[in-house]
């Protein structure tokens, strides 16, 4: 049996301009509290930092327990409503 996955994606952009500040022998990027609250980042939150060579990407490391709970709910939804959602998408 094929599994269909449907996602609703909502996006919005929170933009700010910042300047690096000297912090010892390194540089620091100070992030405003409002943005940290949106991302649910607190002191001690582990972060993934990556780049494509042009853009710096900072994201909280995904909570594995929360991810497993989401995956389970998605699997149950697909099991219970997958065929109906597929027919709806095709009509």
If classified by CATH, what would the architecture of the largest domain be? Ribbon
Low-confidence stretches: none
Q: Regarding CATH, which class of the largest domain?
A: Mainly Beta
What's the number of domains? Answer: 2
Q: Report the portion of residues in β strands.
A: 15-25%
Sheet with the most strands? Answer: 2 strands, antiparallel
Strand order of the largest sheet: 1-2
* Elements, N to C (H/E): EEHEEH
Q: Which structural class is indicated by helix and strand composition?
A: alpha+beta
Can you tag this structure with a few keywords?
alpha+beta, Pemi-like Protein 1, Chain: D, 2 domains, 36% helix
Summarize the structure.
By secondary structure, this protein is of the alpha+beta class. Helices cover 36% and strands 18% of the residues.
Folded structure, characterized:
There is one protein chain. With 91 residues, this protein is α+β, with helices and mostly antiparallel strands. The chain folds into two domains: 17-60, Pemi-like Protein 1, Chain: D; 62-91. The chain is built from two helices and four strands, in the order ββαββα. The chain has helices at 33-38, 64-90; strands at residues 21-23, 26-28, 47-51, 56-60. A two-stranded antiparallel ribbon has the order 1-2. It has a two-stranded antiparallel sheet with strand order 3-4. A hairpin with a 2-residue loop joins β1 (21-23) and β2 (26-28). The longest helix is centred in the C-terminal third of the chain and has 27 residues, at 64-90. The model has no long low-confidence stretch (mean pLDDT 84).
């Amino acid at each position: 049996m094929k599994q269909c996955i449907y996602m609703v994606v909502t996006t919005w952009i929170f933009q700010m301009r910042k300047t690096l500040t000297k912090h010892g022998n390194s540089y620091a990027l100070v992030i405003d509290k409002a943005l940290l609250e949106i991302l649910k980042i607190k002191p001690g939150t582990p972060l993934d930092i990556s780049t494509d060579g042009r853009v710096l990407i900072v994201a909280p490391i995904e909570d594995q327990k929360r991810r497993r709970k989401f995956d389970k709910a998605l699997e149950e939804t697909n099991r219970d409503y997958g065929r109906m959602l597929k027919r709806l998408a095709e009509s």
